[in-house]
Fold this protein.
Amino acid sequence: NAHPRSLFRKPFFADALARLSMLRVLDLGSCAIGHYEMGQLAKVVRTRAALRELRVLGLSHNNLCNVALDWLSSVLQHTVQLQVLDLDHNMFGSGAISAFGRALPNTCRAVHLAGGVLDEDGLVMVRDTVLLGPSGVRSLIPHLSGLTHLRSLSLKRQLCERPGVAAGPGPSNVQARQLAVSELAKAFGELAQLEFLDLDDNEISGGEMVVLAPSFSRRLRVLSLNNNAGTDSDLFVRELCSALLWMILLEELFLSSNLISDAAVTSLAVVIENMTRLGRLQLDWNHINKPGTICLSNALAGKPMRVPGCLLYTSDAADEEEMASNE
């Protein structure tokens, strides 16, 4: 129950950490840790060869800001077995990701960065997931390929700029987005162990799907692309279908609010008919009418769906058609 600031100043604490050579989990969340305390922790790790077996380091809900990044990087360089780093709800700003990203060991499976400056929305934390805010996503991309054990990645609403974050859809922003998509595709190609990918709310166009889809991991079990295809929805689905052909392990596919038409869903139906492990398909709030619904039903005939009622194809157009028939 001692205040952490006084605790870190006591020699016995450093001695205790040094003796815990087999410690696997160190949770210092909500301990008012700042620059000084991170410096002391880095000193213990560096000079006393402590925490070499550490798997989980929790530093959430503290006062950590960019000035503490050098100390944090020093800690990461010496915790060579680290798998989970929890930095939720601190005070990092833009550029923080690249500063400590280079120090992350390749054993790392999860980096939690929800809350604080990086993520104004407070995204829901998913186990073994990287969660970032809009200012950090492009800084992290070059370091993603080093996280070879990463299982789950959530980049929800990260590629589209929000009001107040960017100056608008000018040429520089368009070019920056194109570069981010290209670099992201390259990083995806290195994440061979990735099983969960969330790209919701990124306004991914059909042209961008041409770049991204071929790099999706063949080990994916869950793919979420809700609320994306604002333009070129047919091209969006067509390129996705090309990628789905070799996603033989896929179990859940989320495609809500993508303006998917009957013509596009026909192409999708041909592919999912051969996806033997698919247990959940979500297509609500698209432009799928009766012909598309029949096509989907035929494709899914005899396929055991894991979640009751998981096939959702309700859309504005379908609702209007049903209302007209009832009248």
Summary: DSSP finds twelve helices and ten strands in the chain. Residues 116-129, 131-135, 161-171, 307-320 have pLDDT under 50 and may be disordered.
